[in-house]
Amino acid sequence: MYLRQSNDPNRGKLEEQIKKVQAGNTEMQNELIENYQPFIAKSVSEVCRRFIDPSKDEEFSIGLSAFNEAMLAYADDKGSSFLSFAKLVIKRKTIDYIRRERIRLPAASLDELYEDDSENPREAEAAQTAYNQETEAWYRRAEIEEYDKKLKEYKLSFQELIQVAPKHRDARQSAIEAAKILHKDYELRDYVMRKKKIPIKQLVEKVTVSKKTLERNRKYILAIFIILSEDYIYLKDYMKGVS
Question: What predicted TM-score, i.e. pTM, was given to this entire model?
Fold first, then answer.
């Protein structure tokens, strides 16, 4: 089965195969691409929210290319399994492709409308703008739904975050900096991902705030850590704003 999780005993074998690919083993590279096509199709379909036909859909080709890119770029010291990393790369590349197509296709359709006097190009442009806004809103909602699922793994919820989020800008910034330190430090990041909690004693030695402050903002720090650890495009933009 292609859906191997991080506790799967085969994970180590897959990571070793990836190292062989990175060393130039093209036979292994082609074999993995072939074996993981169902995984690639599923990852792409999660973005497109529809069935992906490998023989017809261009998005699947984007997924194949992204999976290959992930094999070459993967580093096992980043705290995530290869399949988790590959899924993020596939989703990011698929979203980028959809965005490019959304820009290109409306431009072509507008050119056709200008050639047809029976249509109003300004109305068409306004309709396309509204469509783009709706599509963008859909992607935001999908990302928030995915984030909500991840929060539950850490026994957190959106409702809690509203209540515990620091009210003052300086406090928010300190919490975000603490989350960044957790994410950048390999040992601390691994601890958080395994235990789903913050190593307060170790973290207090690396930040400028007190242990009491860390404990008070623990849930908010974890929430920011999750954003940093995943491929959330819109939430990362939001985080830039609050920081």
Answer: 0.55
